[in-house]
Amino acid sequence: MAKISDTERSNYTEKTKPYQDAIDVILKREKDILVLIQGNPGDAALKQLDLVEEMLNLASYYIILSGVSLSMLKVKNEDALNDGRKALYKGVIYLEELVGNYVDAAFADYEEKLAGLSSLDAVRRYLLIRKMGFSINLLEYAYGDNTKWKWSFVELEGRYAVVAKNILDLRNAVANTDPRSPDYEPTVFHLRLIKKLFSQAADRYREKYELSTNRIDDFRQGISFLSALRRIHIVLGNREEAEILKKKLDIWSAKLEKDVTKKSLLARKKG
Known about the structure:
Blueprint (H helix, E strand, L loop, with lengths): L5 H34 L4 H30 L4 H22 L7 H4 L11 H22 L8 H15 L6 H4 L7 H30 L2 H20 L3 H32 L1
Helix pairs in contact: 1-2, 2-3, 2-5, 3-5, 3-6, 5-6, 5-8, 6-8, 8-9, 9-10
């Protein structure tokens, strides 16, 4: 790697100053919003949504910093990318606090958590989730294929899939898939996205298990996403899709049981 000259570094600092200033402003706003939430808990839910938006914006600026570095200095700004990853995690966590982190649960189990978002319309819910997914995709692209963080994105994508599902009003989802409903388009698009995300999360967790960690917990998490996806199809009355997923779940569960038995036997031999 060619050494970066002082002039190049100075030019980079000057070029990125507006973005760094914007980052500082967002970080200050985050602190201010947290103070407001603490002082007025009754209005906390919508304020916390603002925090989610701020974290997505923050991540985008960190991605820009790395992009400028790559363009001007021919090297990624790994520190900026790592800060962007942390910002996205914070955004997901802020949303989890609002809607729950339940992968496979009945809507009634977390419906109460959504009470503070009753005034949030279907369009904004969908657009927020789309923005979060776009931010995650941008960050993964910025890191590149050979990053050491490759498998950590499986967890981030999975947690994103969960909040994407939990922010949706599933109790009224079926009614809102009627073309006469004013929430028809955002609901249909949101549901389509959730199905895609849960299918991908299941496959990615199994891939992580088989190609990286060999941890049973990762395989179990993949099965949880499949089970949750089947539950969604059942709620929506998609019997054929639910039956297909049941067969896939049976195959995966049998594979899991076989692997658990194999690991147990190996552990006994070593012991």
